[in-house]
Write a structure and sequence with these properties.
The complex is a heterodimer of chains A (396) and B (259). In chain A, 39% of the residues are buried. In chain A, strand 1 and strand 2 form a beta hairpin. Chain A is mainly alpha-helical and 396 residues long. Chain A is built from 18 helices and 4 strands. In chain A, helix 8 packs parallel to helix 10. Chain B is α/β, with parallel strands linked by helices and 259 residues long. Chain B folds into 2 domains: 169 residues, 3-Layer(aba) Sandwich (Rossmann fold); 76 residues, no CATH class. Chain B is 39% helix and 23% strand. In chain B, a hairpin with a 2-residue loop joins strand 1 and strand 2. In chain B, helix 3 packs parallel to helix 6 and helix 5 crosses helix 6. Chain B is globular, with a radius of gyration of 19 Å.
Chain lengths: 396, 259
């Protein structure tokens, strides 16, 4: 067994070796020779060893997992404090006031963040709760967006009509995709859904007569309240409140389902399919509800997206989008509503507000992600299950 | 003459060229505890899996209930559970990241009804059903001795407690027949003795029949009214504990036959 000290020294040696070509040599362009520089290497070795030892000492002193925050499950943990009524009301009123006091640019960013919150909550049902790794989620988003784009241009249907219609359409597609992949799990399911997402995108790109091909659909009508004329800023604020409402409804739905018979059966499927079936859970029905409900939200948000940007093309629905939404779910902690909200905020707002760092922006973003994986490998909120207490005698 | 609550006849299953089950018969009467023993690889767990629909038996039938008996072969595991056959697993299969109480609540899935719409609108029947589910789950956890552990995660429980939780979860589906697959595996003497009491009290309180796979002979001989002995996929003996202990075929299967 290695002692912490030998381990740390080995780590230092490894780093010195890795940085050898960068630090260990200096080129002299005038004489065209290479000079060996031992001292910087020694410095790298020393600093890394010390750092590694300090790190291991810190890790031994307190378990890494509980080092930063108490878990949601712990009494008085930060997640619970976050769940209290005054905090939620403050957050809600803040969300209501923000677009009135900030610039249109800020409102725009917030709209994007809220969009991803709803998408994250939808995918959370499929991946986080039911444990079905879906890498083609963006397909349902695209279906919603194109449904509004096409229906509003070809049949002159309004935003409010298409919103539920597109949601249901996406849900049906979700169920249709669900049927052939019922038996698949994990990696295999991921591959099939990934393929499905690409199929939808390629169809949109190549079926020019209907979808407009790569140039997409432009001039899509923005949502409006009949009889009300809005200027640009009011339009922006209206969009904000609209997506805020959608997000609140999505949170409410997820919350209701979380501790219900259906929600528990999704979780049971995620934890152990065979045991779940042996406990009377119908695999087909339960999985298809998860796929359908998850896709529903993507469809609804797709309509919103098309209406907001008034222009859509297949480039908006690449695998990259699916990956971001999936990151939100994983980063937030599988199955946690508050986790999705916080993670969507982080993943969308952080790159925006790190713009002052210019070319180091994505580097910082990556560093934050790596730190996350080290300190909270189970996501921001680790155990999102609610507490139970026995019903009181008089209610029985 | 009483009718059996569960009757298995001619149940067979092959894996490739291996005949894992060779036409096994069994009858369990209401309120009976039947033990199922046999050397490792005798096909005991395969027998369980064929009855609960995890494997599909190629021949034979499994009938559950009295009037009229329902055929189980060819049905899905969840349908079989709803008809009244619940089981535990040899290698514990709990829902690890769910709370202890939630594991039991999932067990009541088959005897509850509420779906998406009633949940979203929080209908009266849904609230009432949830309350009943919660109440019954608390009672079940108390009856298996897990009171006070309701809000822990299932995978945080001690090994013996996980086995107990599996029993509570299976009981939550209100089965006619409870099938326990090596419930005492990995338990020490005290825990096994407690399990003995637990199984007896389940039989008395819930008025159900129990089919028990177990290697702990003292437990099996203590509890079982009838014992089925299997070896190499076939039934080699069936009878009371005394008969089984003196049966030459059983002794041969366990200790090897004299040549």
């Amino acid at each position: 067994m290695k002692t912490p000290w030998t381990r740390s020294l080995l780590i230092g040696l490894w780093f010195a070796f890795l940085t050898l070509p960068l630090v260990g040599f200096r080129t002299d362009f005038l004489e065209k020779t290479l000079h060996f520089r031992p001292w910087p290497l020694v410095a790298v070795f020393g600093v890394t060893s010390l750092f590694a030892f300090g790190w291991s000492w810190y890790a031994r002193r307190q378990p890494v997992e509980t080092a930063l925050f108490a878990s949601y499950g712990g009494v008085g943990g930060w997640g619970q404090r976050l769940n209290s009524k005054p905090v939620l009301l403050t957050l809600l009123s803040l969300a209501l006031v923000l677009p009135l006091v900030t610039s249109g640019y800020q409102t725009g960013i917030l709209i994007t963040a809220l969009t991803y919150i709803v998408l994250g909550l939808g995918l959370n049902i499929v991946v986080g709760v039911a444990g079905l790794l879906d890498l083609g989620y963006v397909a349902f988003y695209a279906v919603g967006a194109y449904a509004y784009g096409l229906l509003s241009q070809q049949y002159d249907l309004g935003f409010w009509v298409v919103l539920p219609v597109a949601g249901v359409l996406a849900a049906l597609l979700g169920v249709l995709l669900g049927i052939p992949v019922l038996r698949l799990r994990g990696d295999y399911l991921a591959i099939v859904t990934l393929g499905f997402g690409e199929i939808i995108r390629l169809v949109l790109e190549n079926w020019g007569e209907v979808t407009g091909g790569p140039s997409g659909i432009s001039g899509i009508k923005k949502p409006a309240i009949p009889g009300v004329v809005m200027d640009f800023q009011q339009q922006n604020q209206f969009l904000y409140y609209l997506i805020l409402l959608l997000a609140l409804v999505a949170i409410w739905v997820n919350h209701r389902l979380q501790s219900s018979r259906l929600g528990r059966s999704w979780l049971a499927l995620r934890e152990d399919e065979i045991a779940a079936q042996a406990m009377g859970i119908d695999l087909t029905q339960t999985k298809l509800t998860a796929f359908g409900l998850g896709a529903f939200w993507a469809g609804v948000v797709g309509v919103f997206f098309a209406a907001k940007s008034s222009f859509i093309n297949p480039a908006s629905f690449t695998f990259h989008e699916s990956a971001i939404i999936l990151s939100i779910v994983v980063l937030g902690g599988m199955g946690s509503i508050a986790g999705v909200v916080i993670a969507a905020g982080l993943l969308i707002l952080l790159p925006e507000y790190l713009r002052f760092l210019q070319e180091y922006r994505m580097l910082m973003f990556g560093a934050v992600m790596v730190l996350m994986m080290i300190f909270r490998p189970d996501g921001l909120i680790k155990n999102p299950r609610p507490f139970y207490s026995r019903p009181k005698k008089e209610d029985r | 003459m009483k009718k059996p609550v569960l009757s298995v006849s001619g149940l067979s299953k092959t894996f490739g060229g291996i005949r894992a089950l060779k036409s096994v018969d069994l009858e369990i009467f209401p309120g009976q505890i039947v033990g199922l023993i046999g050397p490792n690889g005798a096909g005991k767990t395969t027998f369980f899996n064929c009855m609960t629909g995890i494997y599909r038996a190629e021949e034979g039938s499994v009938r559950l209930g009295e009037d009229p008996p329902q055929e189980l072969v060819g049905k899905r595991p969840d349908q079989i559970n709803r008809l009244g056959l619940a089981r535990t697993f040899q290698n514990i299969r709990l829902f690890g990241k769910m709370r202890v109480i939630e594991n039991v609540m999932v067990g009541r899935h088959g005897v509850t009804r509420q779906g998406l719409i009633s949940t979203l609108f929080k209908t009266k029947s849904m609230v009432a059903e949830e309350k009943e589910t919660l109440e019954r789950s608390y009672e079940l956890l108390k009856s298996v001795g897990l009171e006070g552990q309701e809000n822990r995660l299932a995978n945080e429980l001690a090994y013996a407690d996980q086995r107990r939780l599996e029993i509570a979860r299976a009981l939550a589906s209100e089965p006619k027949v409870l099938m326990l697959d090596e419930p005492a595996a990995g338990m020490n003497h005290t825990e096994t003795a407690e399990l003995d009491q637990l199984i007896l009290s389940i039989k008395e309180q819930a008025k159900i029949s129990i089919l028990l796979i177990e290697h702990d002979m003292r437990l099996v001989m203590n509890l079982s009214e009838q014992i089925l002995v299997m070896d190499q996929g076939a039934k080699i003996a069936f009878g009371s504990p005394e008969e089984i202990q003196n049966n030459p075929a059983v002794i041969g299967a366990y200790l090897g036959q004299e040549v």
